[in-house]
């Protein structure tokens, strides 16, 4: 039987440069039912909570990936670890995967790009940064992590936002539980959704969204998809914009006369 879990619901008061927001972080875990090796499995096909977007702000973008180690400066991770597909899948609008076959071939991990997160006596963190191309007000950020089993399916991470790519502000964080390696042998997918608990904009004036991965299962985890959604303008805001447009048209007409 397929398993679905509501894992975490948390609130944190975060002060952003242009607004105050109470950031809500809600997490779900999808565990696939038993299946045959090599067969495909798509959580979105049977779990209404898992709905990756193909029209969000990050769709088709290529993330910049960087690493930081406070214990061994210069060390880096490998987004293609165990023949994973790498960053190209993080914004393709799909969370479909396959039941693992023996070995570590590319077919097994074609749905994942691997992030590295060591803690303890050795520290290595992964920074994944998306340039949205313009400044937006954001309503929601969804981060999907996962793997063919529970060996590398999740990671703790922090989301930071910036208007200029130089100065980043904390938006919110997710802290995973203890590693559950060996608990599940079928595909595991986690959804971590960041929203404002009052329905306001999650963040305003944002062009860069950065994920800082700090503590991954077995030091490495699969990142499946990142969706970034623009806030819908308030009706009053739309009305004011419309009035401004009409005023501009009126002025142009008077000038033309």
UniProtKB/TrEMBL annotation:
Q: Which UniProt keywords apply?
A: Signal
- Per the record, the domain of life is Bacteria
Question: May I ask which residue range the UniProt record assigns to the signal sequence?
Answer: 1-21
Q: Which residues form the Ice-binding protein C-terminal domain?
A: 231-254
Q: What is this protein called?
A: Ice-binding protein C-terminal domain-containing protein
